[in-house]
Input
Amino acid sequence: MMNEPSGTQFSKKHPADERPSDKVLEAVRQKAKEGEMPCAVAFDIANQLKVEPSEVGFAVDYSEIRLVKCQLGLFGYKPQKSIVKPADSVLPELEKAIRARLKDGRLPCREAWAIASEQGLRKMEVSSACEALGIKISNCQLGAF
Output
């Protein structure tokens, strides 16, 4: 595939007989650089095309493009992969909001984003609070994890 990073097999996460829509696939391939796509760019594509982020994530995987620079700081940074650090302290209202939205003991990515928006925080402030509380974030909206 074009711009394929060596050794990737992201497409194997999906059924072999499925294919992304042509419009999403084209947008992904146009915006990818050196076989990578930042999370924010993938979300921009989803917003512009009015599709779910998971559709863009599927097209990214299908094209064997590596998602990088997770907006929660969880993956895609060099050289250490994750850049999120535990918060020194977590405000009680933030902890309450996080704990109220846990699913099977984890905070879904979509909920982390919602909490950040509702409380006027940066997304990484929510993931940093989760790190401090020992709570894992799950269900990446793009399907990376």
Summary: Strands lie at 36-38, 66-68, 107-108, 137-138. The chain has a mean pLDDT of 93. Residues 10-68 form one domain.
